[in-house]
Automatic annotation (TrEMBL):
GO molecular function, one term: enzyme regulator activity
Species in which this protein is naturally found: Quisquiliibacterium transsilvanicum
Protein name: Nitrogen regulatory protein P-II 2
InterPro entries the UniProt entry points to: N-reg_PII (IPR002187), N-reg_PII-like_a/b (IPR011322), N-reg_PII/ATP_PRibTrfase_C (IPR015867)
BP term (GO), one: regulation of nitrogen utilization
């Protein structure tokens, strides 16, 4: 079975900007995404999600390396100064390359 190399871009941020991120992802080359509500903690404190302003979401985007870099650069520039946002990248292999 043929596999195709892609990147997994993960974005964890405040739920308040979910709709804006969806528009940005599509405009910047993501063919799809998965989003989940998440909770956690780190150097910026705890985010339990108990009230609306404290909700966080995690986006997972499988895409080409070029799209991942374009998306990450935009998100950090546009949202990094104003919102809590974490991005990380991993190598993945997919079976249906045309979908990503």
């Amino acid at each position: 079975m043929q596999k195709h190399p892609r990147k997994l871009l993960v974005v964890i941020t405040e739920a308040a900007i979910e709709r804006a991120l969806i528009a940005d992802l599509r405009r910047l080359g993501a063919l799809g995404y998965t989003v989940n509500e998440v909770r956690g903690g780190g150097s910026s404190g705890e985010r339990s999600g108990e009230w609306e302003a404290e909700r966080s979401v995690k986006f997972q985007v499988v895409c080409t390396e070029e799209a991942a870099e374009r998306i990450a650069a935009h998100l950090l520039q546009a949202y990094g100064p104003h919102y809590r946002i974490v991005l990380y990248l991993a190598d993945v292999e997919v079976f249906r390359g045309e979908k990503f």
